Each structure stands twice: as C-alpha cells, then as structure tokens.
Amino acid sequence: MITHFRFKPLFENTQLPGWAISFYYKQKYYTGEYKKDGSIKWMGDTPDDLLIVEKQIHEYMLFHVYE
C-alpha cells in the first residue's frame, strides 16, 4: 500500500499539466513525474510491483487532481 502520497504541479502555471509525485511503498521512498497522459517517469528506483503501484497512483491522481 502507498503511504504519504504527495503531489505538486511541475509548473507555476497550473494550466500546464504535469506533477511531481512522491510516496512510500513497502517502507521505501519513491519519486517521479506524473505526465498528462498518465505515464510516470520514475526518478531513481522503480517499485517491484510496478503495475499495482501505478494503478494506485492513477486512482490517487483521479481523486485529487481530476475530481
């Protein structure tokens, strides 16, 4: 399960899509960029359960950003 999920816009102009994301998964810290098309560019390591984690991130982003 993802914990301490955070996101912030990459650009000051909030009309431009793109968000910096960070979270903990299985007690390890991950960061990345969430693109407007839903793809994620990972900064550093990627989670072992990549498909599961990406699905959870999409759900968080839908709830918080696209509500």
UniProtKB/TrEMBL annotation:
Pfam families the record matches: DUF5342
InterPro entries noted in UniProt: UCP037692 (IPR017263)
Name of the protein in its database record: YheE family protein
Naturally occurring in which organism (per UniProt): Ureibacillus massiliensis 4400831 = CIP 108448 = CCUG 49529
